[in-house]
Amino acid sequence: MTTKKLPWDIPTSWRPALEAAGRGAAMFLIGEIDSGKSTLAAALANEAAAAGRRTAIVDADVGQSSIGPPACVGMAIPAGGFESLDDLVPHRIDFVGACSPAGHLLQAATSAAVLVGAARSAGCETIVVDTTGMVSGGLARALKVAKIRLVDPDVIVALQSEDEVEHLVAAYRTRRRPQVLRLRTSRAARLRSREERVANRQRKFAAYFREAKLIDISWADAPMENSPWTTGEPAPGHIAAYAEECVGCEVLYVERRADGAVLVVRGRPEAEGLRALRESLGGTPHVIDAASLESLVVGLLGDQGETLAIGIMERVDFRKRRVSVYTPLGEAALVRGMRLGSVRIARDGTQLGTGE
Fold it and tell me: Per DSSP, what are the bridge partners of residue 327?
């Protein structure tokens, strides 16, 4: 055992988890906000590395990311010992698109599973999955159950001061696998204020975009993965003019699809006008407010759907069908798709609001 060499206050209750990490296991951590999950993840990874295990940490805490930028799941494969997850360089990231899993449960669970799969493909024997502090209510239960099924861990580590996460692990008590280990939170765990958490997120975004620049991307070459926009046929000008007349606000762009037109507008469209469009064009019109696209964080995807980088969508040229994205990714030619997020930020990481 190398527990004494670790630079943290390690409770006695953590010893079974450290031993499991040293033997090699996929480990899924559950605990409240500021319960010490990141410290535990670092301790487990160091223990595994000291035992000679190739180790990966998957950071699925999208709001307080340590590995990679916020709104992403990050994965690192440490080369040696380290004291904090913040010291690690991401091996891969996967863009979720939000700084809270609420409203993004499918993508949050999928992204965690994708990066655990990548860690297994890289030959990692110990994989430590750090999760968000959302542990109360039905949404938390749905998210944790989905992640556990997709990640398929050997061990669930429940980190709690009393029994606050017991309702999330009780269903596994009669199963042979995954094994459930119940650990007590460390005395060193410190609660952070909401202001501290917001400031930390801003610093993380700012650091990620420090070396960024603007690149222009044609959406014909890189359509949106999770939006009807860019997936239909551009409508001719007279259709856009007709749509504008109907809805009573500026219509910047129209696409036609089998299930209805997609309109990008400025202003608030009239409900009666949308009904008229439904009758004349068929299907149900889908309206996107152009303001929701300004400064929106987007994922830039490669030819296998992997996240190459994230960016800030700063300008949209609807005539040329191009977007200008502020990103550390150097080459627009690498981008084969985009995934819209739901958070809007400035270049310095300040959150401006949410998107659509």
Answer: 213
- Are 199 and 216 members of one domain? no
Verify that 169 and 144 share a domain, yes or no.
yes
Residue whose pair of structure tokens reads 């200008």 in the numeric block: 324
Task: For residue 223, give both structure tokens.
Answer: 């359509």
Phi, psi of 235 (to 5 degrees): -80, 150
Q: Would you say 302 and 284 are in contact if contact means Cβ atoms under 8 Å apart?
A: no
* Beta-strand relationship, 262-266 and 250-256: antiparallel
Q: What's the pLDDT at 2?
A: 43
Q: Which domain holds residue 133?
A: 3-206
Spatial distance between the Cα atoms of 278 and 243, rounded to a whole number of angstroms:
10
Tens of pLDDT, residues 51-74:
999 999 999 999 999 999 999 999
Give CA–CA dist 27/171, Å, rounded: 17
**199 shares its domain with 106:** yes
List, for residues 231-252, the tens digit of each pLDDT value. 889 999 899 999 999 999 999 9
